[in-house]
């Protein structure tokens, strides 16, 4: 049993350690960011709000039904609900009712509001798509920056290994009296500089990893790492399309244009809604109410023995007083609660027509404000199209230039490699000094770094063009 417990602990510890040491691919980073990035979550909240707005618009088509109930005690001079006489008393009264109202016609504003809510929901979805595209590019850029920093560190370490070998050879040659002491000092200075750059490169890797982790919403910075793999350059066939083809595709596919078009439709719908205030509104209503009281009910009557008659009139010709028996009602216990509700209920129903004549120019001014907003939305759409054209031109030109820079960097790196090999051979036979050798080595190292920089710069800029061409962010290949 003890051995099984130890084995289970080791397996659990191993699985936890493996989970902590997980290395993320670019595709995993992008997918994780699309689900967990805070900006994406905020854009998703906007889509939820648009769904609620749509439900509000749908709710305008169903009746409003409200119920109310009151149970109150009145003390003092109040009307007796049974006899109708004012008297000092304490009585309990209960009342209840249900009211329903329905808009039958409101200048089609409810119908237009529903259409507007649907457009608003589409606009929120387009904004979410744009946010996902932006986050995917941001993650890709940050990921490629980490990868460049890692491979840059490998280049510096590889050059330092050569420096270490050269340092040993130079020390032997100085000890043998073939080279002066200054050459050894020059190589040592180069070695110290490279070790310093190794430390700086390691710090850059940590900083770039933290930046990427924050974008993904990962807080375990210490155990966050990426897969170190060499990304190939492919997909450049997208540049075989003319820039005008990319622009036309972008206008049909990009969220920027869809958002601007949706905003234009929203503004136009606001104009239609505001014009609805010019038209009459027709509504229907229904009310049911009832009451119950703790006041006693009249069960009979008898002549007042102290005052058996009461004056009810006067004959003008004879001035004769007309009297009638003075009856006193006999009160009994109130009827049961539900019986009273049944006897005392009533209904009110009908239609209500409102015709606008003059409201201080409020409706007309609102229409004008909506029309100004619609014109502004039209201008924003035209500006979005111009901005998209400029951005596509820029991205397309940048991608072409990045590819040319990458090819030039490869040619330069090959030339610097041969130059370094030649300088190394000359240094080994004493035909060049350590300073010239170090300079040749530095130029070779810089050319290798430039190849890496140009490569990842081209990969990123190529993905930007692919997004403009309408390739979904999850389908981007690296």
Automatic annotation (TrEMBL):
<comment type="similarity">
    <text>Belongs to the outer membrane factor (OMF) (TC 1.B.17) family.</text>
</comment>
<keyword id="KW-1134">Transmembrane beta strand</keyword>
<keyword id="KW-0732">Signal</keyword>
<protein>
    <submittedName>
        <fullName>Transporter</fullName>
    </submittedName>
</protein>
<keyword id="KW-0812">Transmembrane</keyword>
<dbReference type="GO" id="GO:0009279">
    <property type="term" value="C:cell outer membrane"/>
</dbReference>
<dbReference type="Pfam" id="PF02321">
    <property type="entry name" value="OEP"/>
</dbReference>
<feature type="signal peptide">
    <location>
        <begin position="1"/>
        <end position="19"/>
    </location>
</feature>
<keyword id="KW-0813">Transport</keyword>
<keyword id="KW-0472">Membrane</keyword>
<dbReference type="GO" id="GO:1990281">
    <property type="term" value="C:efflux pump complex"/>
</dbReference>
<dbReference type="InterPro" id="IPR003423">
    <property type="entry name" value="OMP_efflux"/>
</dbReference>
<dbReference type="InterPro" id="IPR051906">
    <property type="entry name" value="TolC-like"/>
</dbReference>
<keyword id="KW-0998">Cell outer membrane</keyword>
<dbReference type="GO" id="GO:0015288">
    <property type="term" value="F:porin activity"/>
</dbReference>
<dbReference type="GO" id="GO:0015562">
    <property type="term" value="F:efflux transmembrane transporter activity"/>
</dbReference>
